[in-house]
Amino acid sequence: MERTKILVTGGAGYIGSHAVVELYKAGYQPVIVDNFANSQESALTGIEQILGVKVPFHRIDCNDMEALRAVFAEEGSLRGVIHFAAFKAVGESVAKPLEYYQNNVGSLLTLLAVMREFGVSALVFSSSCTVYGVPDALPVTEQTPTKKANSPYGATKQMCEDILRDVVAAPDATLRTILLRYFNPIGAHDSALIGELPLGVPQNLIPYVTQTAAGIREKLTIYGDTYDTPDGTNIRDYIHVVDLAEAHVVAVRRLLEGHSDAVETFNVGTGHGNSVLEVVQAFERASGQKLNYVIGPPRPGDVPAIYADVTKATQELGFTTTTSLEDSLASAWKWQQTLKG
User: Fold this and answer.
1) Which helix (H) or strand (E) covers residue 161, if one does?
2) In what residue span(s) does the NAD-dependent epimerase/dehydratase domain sit (predicted)?
3) Which of 181-201 are b and which e, b meaning 16 or more Cβ less than 10 Å from the residue's Cβ?
4) Which domains can be identified in the chain, with CATH numbers?
């Protein structure tokens, strides 16, 4: 039986590569588009080793309309798209706002134009809890007001969500979309064949933790310990990347089976917050490694605390996470050790 083709932009990236694996395991045929701006070709090898098959791949930039058009034409019969391709570092976005707006908003506009041209109407969009800004109350639900974003990265995700709502609301619209607002993905595939591959100095906490434990970094800097949280450090909702990938499979199925509204939004997290210090302590327990860390000044753009209310995803998608924080961190350490070797 022929597999249903799903285009995965940014499919060689951290979350994208895990989603490709889960899509294939669920019976779909993923087609990867990536330009390796924020990923590495080794992810494709890892995917192939896990699945035992080569997944179709096109090396293009999603801002290049002619190249994207050529992919749609060559592949034919694409039924849906998961759009991961975006720059994603909060701190970097503060330093490089223009690049973030051009890439993140521009690539979505290009993709939507090509989808319309080729009659592809199902889109799962990679959004972020950064759209909530600094929330007034926790946990955040999908009805929590989106406030002014704390960073250009967050602003691009807000803009993309607004664009999608407007496109879906047009009188002749065929697009149907699910917006998945991720919290903080961590960990790696249990095979340790794919995982997070930061280019240069990591912008995210967990790769910095694992690189410090591996001796690649001298020390971990915790940015701020005077936030209004129990131990003064930032609180985030850390979700294992394979759990997050599985949420995309559920969302794709919902769109293709026609069970979704024209546009739907879901928080994808664990429903529980952990502070940076709690993560450090959990990593030490999971790995048996002692971490060298220091306290530094707060970073611009960082929200003090945010974690998800996941009731809607549980009730309407039937989606729940299954991996504990310590197991997620153990998988990240296993992946780091593979890289070190």
Assistant:
1) helix 152-169
2) 6-269
3) bbbbbbbbbeebbbbbbbeee
4) 5-186+238-268 (3.40.50.720), 205-236+271-340 (3.90.25.10)
Task: State which H helix or E strand residue 211 sits in.
Answer: helix 205-213
Percentage of the chain surpassing pLDDT 70?
A: 99
List 186's β-bridge partners, or say none: 240
Three-class HEC string of 217-230 = CCCEEEECCCCCCC
Of 237, 229, 241, 171, give the one whose Cα is nearest residue 16: 241
Catalytic status, residue 153:
yes
Catalytic position from the list 153, 208, 238, 307: 153
Q: What is the arithmetic mean of pLDDT over 164-173?
A: 97
Pair of tokens at residue 28: 């779909």
Q: Which two tokens stand for residue 95?
A: 């330093």
Give the number of other CB atoms < 10 A from CB of residue 214: 15
Contact 266, 179 (CB under 8 A): yes
Tokens of 249: 């499979």
Asked if 259 and 296 count as a contact pair (C-beta separation under 8 A), the reply is no
> Which residues fall within 8 angstroms of residue 136, CB to CB, at 6 or more apart?
145
The pLDDT tens digits for 211-232 are 999 999 999 999 999 999 999 9
How far is it, in rounded angstroms, from Cα 217 to Cα 201?
Answer: 9
| DSSP summary character for residue 122 | E
Four-point Cα dihedral 77, 80, 81, 82, nearest 10: -140
Rg (CA), the chain: 19
* pLDDT at 90 (0 to 100): 85
Three-class secondary structure of residue 88 per DSSP: coil
**Residue 265 CB contacts under 8 Å (≥ 6 apart), including other chains:** 127, 142, 161, 178, 179, 181
Measured between alpha carbons, how far is 307 from 130 in angstroms, rounded to an integer? 11
